[in-house]
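Hi Y.,

Following your request, here is the sequence exactly as I used it, all 365 residues.
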Amino acid sequence: MAESPHDPADRPVIALAMGDPAGISPELTARVLADPEVLRAAGLIVIGDRRVLEDGARIAGVTPDIAVIAPEAPRPRDLSRPVLIDLGTLDPATVARGRISEAGGRFAAGNYRHALALAARGEADAVAFTPFNKAAMRLAVPDYDDEIAFTARFIGFEGQAKEFNVLEGLWNARVTSHVPLSGVAPLITRGAILDNLTLTDQALRDSGLARPRIAVAALNPHAGDGGNFGREEIDIIGPAVEEAKAAGIACDGPFPSDTVFLRARRGDFDAVLTMFHDQGQIAMKLIGFEQGVTLLGGFPFPICTPAHGTAYEIAGQGVAHPGAARNALLLAARMGAARRRPRPEAATSLAAAREAMRPGRDTAA
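Below is the corresponding structure, written out as tokens. Let me know if you'd prefer a different format.
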């Protein structure tokens, strides 16, 4: 993958929101702010509370070199060292470590809104955040569903955005996500698969890959076994893959889901598009739980976070592994840098491909 520029004047700017203060987010934030490779890759604007960050640094045993400014202060032009926008919204002594609370959710949500606003105004090239706790977020934001819906509402985004998992150069995308398993099959349509292949292809290009190779997983055991275990592979998934190929996307499948990740890991593919949440999540977390990154792709700017959660059970012990948080910042830096460069010509547009193939397409699928 392409390297982020190390010249301070050319580095992308990342708005980093501190996550749930009762978990490992404060110490992870402190660790990445003291990581030399992260600091070389991007200029960092951290949003949170100085007291929470200092507590996290004490737990992590690091001393980040940061500048602290008030929310109303203009953003410094010099980001040779990280800048903390101190919202002053939370005294860490008021939040019980390892406990879900409305205050913790309010802190994380407020930080995240501020980071999104910076990126939406063009003051940051990418957004990152240390882990949120969804239950705490729902206490603070009653209509909170997940980060994608929250982000879309806040910035007024009406396009398509999806969650990707990234680990050791391997990407996982999925057609369906947070829905009951009983509701998956009706959502597997040619249009949904084609939309997700297009979005996956573009996200991979934005990360620095010139021509991504995408494997498409089957829905049924043994890829349907020629129709014996279901016809989705024959009637829906296979035709969608062929349509994506005609649009210029380098993809193949459907492949049996119990072997497709083995092929991807050995280098045959850069990404796997799975049909439902755990089909890919189980594989990715077995490959490397402490290193994985979640990317919210499709928004006007990339948004990255560790793929793991708030780890309440180890909060405050100073043992949280920073690998995933570090990787999230480095991916945000690569994609933020790519946004500063002219976009390469991607595959033939989805709209044009659909229009060209309209006569033979089953629009009800």
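The two ends are 36 Å apart (CA to CA).

Thanks again,
Q.
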